[in-house]
Each structure stands twice: as C-alpha cells, then as structure tokens.
Model the fold of this input.
Amino acid sequence: MPQQKIEIAPSILTADFGALRSQIEEVTAAGVNRIHLDIMDGHFVPPLSFSTEVVAAVASATDLPIEVHLMVEKPIEYIQSFSEAGASTHIFHFEALQSLDSCKEVIQEIKSSNSSPAIAISPNTHIDSILELIGDIEQITVMTIQPGWGGQKLRTELLSKIINLRKITSEMNLPNFNIEIDGGVKIDNIKQCISAGANILVAGSAIYNNEMTPSNAVKELHLAIKNSLEK
Ligand code: DX5
Ligand code: ZN
Done:
C-alpha cells in the first residue's frame, strides 16, 4: 500500500482553449494537485504548443503548482522564462540531452531558477540511463505513450519501469520521491498505475473530453484512486 499522497495533474492539451481560464478554475475547484503543461517546440516532437504567455495565463487562473513538461530540444534555453511565468517544476527529457553531464547542467539551471528539477523518459529509454541522477532530482516522469499527443492508449508493458524505479528509490530510502506517469491514464487503469508505484497521475483526455465535464471527471478520478487504495 503506497504511503505517499496520490496526486492528480491535469494536462490541458485537449482542453477547450477558448475557455482556458474556466477550464483551469474548474479542475482547481474540483481538487486536483498540480497543473501539467506540455511544452512542445515542433522539433523534439512535431507539434507546437504553449508559449510563456500561456503558462502565465494558466498561472493567473490557479494557485496550484505548475509543472512544465519540456518536450523541447534545448531545455536550458527555456527554464528561466518558464520559471518567471510561474512554473515551479521543470520536467526535461533525457533524450533531448543524452549525456549525464548535460542533464546535470540543466538540473543546475532549474535549481538556480528556484524550481524543482524532474526528468522525463520516453518509451524507448531504459531507466538505467538516468539512475545516476536520482539524487539530484525530485521527480521522474515515465512516459507511457509516444510524447507529442494526448488521447493515446497507455502502453501497459511500460509500467514495469515504474515498478523498478519505485523499488530502487525505496531502497535508496527516498520514500517521497515523485514518480509521475504521463500518457493514457484513465479511470480503468488507475489501480495498475498506483500499484506499480506512481504517485502523480497526469490526466489529459481523462479530464478534458466531450463526454463529461472536467469537474465530474476529476470526481470520478478521485473515486477511482480511493477504490484503488482500499483494495
Ligand atoms: C503527451 C503529453 C501528455 C498528454 C497526456 O506528450 O506529455 O501529458 O497530454 O494526455 P492523455 O492523458 O490524454 O494521454
Ligand atoms: Zn506531459
């Protein structure tokens, strides 16, 4: 049974951008824990997404912490400006940098901007590539889809990465280390995500979709989390 608080982190990629403020206010009022903003530069992944102005607009609509998921080739160039716009966690991709030294440089830059460093790994990256950095960061984001698009199906074979990371961080006596799962999280797989060891659940299309309001979706996610923890 996980001791850590399970957090919900809405990703707004599939939100109604014409009503951005109310979409953020609604999930804030429904009791989510942080907002996850997917930043895409059109190079690291094909789509383009949000600028610092959008991050600032989201920050002005909520008091919740904001994490920026930097799907960009050169994360170091964005850190200062996203911190100023209101981001308190920067998640950069190991694949954008490849070397541990470059990762350390980015981690330092994130810390210097008074933000928390986190590393994301794409489906083809093995956890061994980043184990050496665990002591320097506060969170690992395990991608369970191909980065770039919301609404894909969670690849359950990738949950073993989370199981192994949780085992390793527990052995390192880091019970509060954040392991975030990003991609395809839905009501019907929440139990699997939590039992694997994830404590932050990114939920994009599970919250922003055409079937229910964001606030009802968050209620259902809370219920699914509660049920997962009880059984
Ligand atoms: C994809 C993004 C995800 C995405 C999640 O590159 O990192 O955060 O928005 O969306 P869902 O929950 O729909 O898979
Ligand atoms: Zn993301």
Observations:
- The chain has one domain: 7-229.
